[in-house]
Amino acid sequence: MSQSMFFVLVFLLGVVSGLRTFTGAAVLWIMRHGGPWAYVLAAAAVFEYFYDVNSKARPRTDVPSLAVRLLSGAFVGWFAAVASGVAPAPGAILGAAGACVGAYGGLAVRRQCISAIGNVASGVLEDLVAIGASVAIIARL
Length: 141
Known about the structure:
The protein is mostly helical. The protein contains six helices and no strands. Helices cover about 85% and strands about 0% of the residues. The mean pLDDT is about 95.
């Protein structure tokens, strides 16, 4: 795989972190590393799926929520690069940039879906997209 294709995939994995903070990291750890951290990240992802449809959930673009999504994007970018033998800093930067795009772009799409199919159905749809995209991306890395 070319380095440019690798960085596109890392950016897209960051987009997933913008949609769901822990999904990209959980799938990366499950598929590439295993061990106890895979279970911790998977549990955090499942918790996030349920919390997301709660009316008390903070908007993903609030500063604390956005900061955690950016950190998650940087995390998956860094570790995907390390696992693939690529320089980690550009991976982290692209992962964080993707998370920003995913957070704001995902919010716009989510609002449209909520008006069309409701909050819970749109949340479940977003969960499935994040899981499927993560698996597809990591399988290609």
